[in-house]
Amino acid sequence: MTHAHDVTVMAESTTLDQQTMDRALEIAARGQGRVEPNPMVGCVVFNDNHIVGEGWHEVFGKPHAEVLALHAAGARAHGGTLYVTLEPCSHHGKTPPCVDAIIRAGIRRVVIAQRDPFSAVNGNGIAALESAGITCDVGIQAAAAGQLLAPYLKLVTTSRPWTIAKWAMTLDGRIATHTGDSRWISGPKSRNVTHQLRGRVDGIVVGRGTAEVDDPLLTARPEQAENVFRKATRIVVDSSCQLSLESQLVKTAGTVPLLIATSDTAPEARCQKLSEAGAEVFRCQGDSRSQQTDSLLQELGRRRMTNILVEGGSQLLGELFDLHAIDEVHVFVAPKIVGGMDAVPPVAGQGVGKIAEALSLVECETERIDQDLYLRGRLALETEDLPRCQS
Question: Would you say 266 and 272 are in contact if contact means Cβ atoms under 8 Å apart?
């Protein structure tokens, strides 16, 4: 969509602009796991040489960051500058347009980190503000905002969820022994981090082999733990719909959503039994496994799942890496060695032919959790530089 008043040029930023936007980004992150499929947004109102109000989008369906920041500022907002991490909305959704509140408050200038590509916004918010005589500067701390907003931006622009791969492995790169045993590779504190990850995503995905061997619940525990905000849908990739009716996943399908992603050729009788047990069955389109995997991602995007966590097995992770569908990686490395040519690696699939073609992480961080090494980062785009991991 094009606009007659299409302003996306970044004005010359000042240290004050950058520092204040950094604060807006800091508080925006507090909405993680609570606001999706909406974006995490933070807002700061600055006037008379200090911050007079701030707010962040706290819960999906509740007031947006701009409205909360303006409410906190009150009359002190008049004539001030509003800093916001994403272009203010100009349409009626679950809440009224934020641009209306900004105009009513008498804001003089609005500083925006990122333009919103959502079709109902996409420059309309900026145009409405400028039509009201408000100066708009767009692009302050845009890169940092892009990192924070990456899952939302991917969902809006590609209709696919942000896909996080997670595994625990031994020092020799194995997620299970040659007999299939995998409990427990990482320590209890590392497993607590996994539960926190589960508590902020929309879906948790495993292959049927992993579901059979581990018989997991795939829930965030304990449910009231800090940072556990959502009840993710458990998703089992099972091309023949053979998941056991006696598995913990199926037995708990009545209380925690369970989606079976199967193929067009799966026996109808098996699908019917799983449906009667409380699971939802989705038949993926496509003749190949990769086509079916992409069909699943498309369906999860259609359901507006913003973040999904893939916990294995190695074949499923390999297919997703081969598709370049993984966006973020969380790995726990335990100081253990199991050996064996037939022990299971974390990522199978076709893989790359040369080390130069290997996928690399950016924004990579390492942390020690008891005896485990916790490594996390985002998959690099082809155009990105590759900084070293930070510990």
Answer: no
Q: How far is CA 196 from the centre of its chain?
A: 13
**Order of strands across the sheet that contains 135-138:** 50-56, 42-47, 81-86, 109-114, 135-138
**pLDDT-based confidence at 385, cuts 50/70/90?**
low
pLDDT of residue 9: 37
Q: For the chain, how far is it from start to end, CA to CA, in angstroms?
A: 43
Q: What is the pLDDT of residue 381?
A: 74
Rounded to an integer, what distance in angstroms lies between the CA atom of residue 252 and that of residue 42? 37
Q: Which residues are known to be catalytic?
A: 66
Host H or E run for residue 44? strand 42-47
Give this prediction's pTM. Answer: 0.90
**How much is the mean pLDDT over the chain?**
91
H or E element that contains 375: strand 372-379
- What span, in angstroms and rounded, lies between the C-alpha atoms of 11 and 120? 24
- Contact call for residues 42 and 26 (beta carbons, < 8 A): yes
Q: What's residue 189's pLDDT?
A: 95
Alpha carbon distance 268, 241 (integer Å): 9
Percentage of the chain exceeding pLDDT 90: 86
- Other Cβ atoms closer than 10 A to 257: 16
| Alpha-carbon radius of gyration of the chain | 23
